[in-house]
Amino acid sequence: MKQIATSLAEDYQAHEDYWLHLRNGVKRAISSTGKADALDAIMDNIPVDRQDNYQIMLDGLKKFWGKKKFDKVTYRKAVWRHSHLKINVSVELFGEYRNKVYLIKLYNHVNDPIRKDEADIMLLVLKEALQAEIDRFVDDGHEVVLGVLDVAKGKLHSYREVGEDISRILKMEAEVLGKYLSEVMAE
Predict the structure, then answer these.
(1) Cβ neighbours of residue 86 under 8 Å, at least 6 residues apart?
(2) If you write DSSP's letter for every residue of 129-176 in order, what string do you get?
């Protein structure tokens, strides 16, 4: 929790964001051709010391992307709230393909695959925070694919109704984190 409090107290530094070029490259690929081959341009400006990790991520993204040609969609970022805790929520891969709107959070960890329980909690936060956007797309006649993509593996974890246990755990963890951060920030 101290690590979370420290990171919240620090200002965001774009030059320190390891995966910034990857996220921006995904958005550019969808905006340009919508095809996976547009992702290759990401490697053009990657420092040499990051190229191996970026190549792993590009391979995973292309595995997921396959032959899809995404059309650009717009969505509004949201905030997930519980008690005094507020978390900004956004997805990095958002596009429409064959009347399905994909709202995908990228999990960018080369050697640390996401566990199913971690994905379920992330998906629950996404679902609750983005519900208005999901409803808007459904009202427009689209199916919505809400997911967390383990980028290195190219494996998509899709939202499914979770039991009360996961929801309860999320709310308990949020309550504890909110109280802790309130105390730390007051110091």
Answers:
(1) 79, 80
(2) HTHHHHHHHHHTT-EEEEEEEETTTTEEEE--PPPHHHHHHHHHHHHH
Helix (H) or strand (E) holding 6: helix 2-9
The more confidently predicted of residues 121 and 82 is 121
Side-chain half-sphere of 124: how many Cα atoms within 13 Å? Answer: 20
Structural domains in the chain (count): 1
- pLDDT tens figures, 51-100: 999 999 999 999 999 999 999 999 888 998 877 778 899 999 999 999 99
Query: What is the Cα–Cα distance from 120 to 158, expressed in whole angstroms?
Result: 9
Assess whether pLDDT exceeds 60 at residue 12. Answer: no
Question: By residue range, what is the domain housing residue 147?
Answer: 2-186
Give the bridge partners for 85, in sequence order.
82
Q: What is the mean pLDDT of residues 27-43?
A: 95
The model's pTM: 0.84
* Cα-based angle 154, 158, 161 (whole degrees, multiple of 5): 160
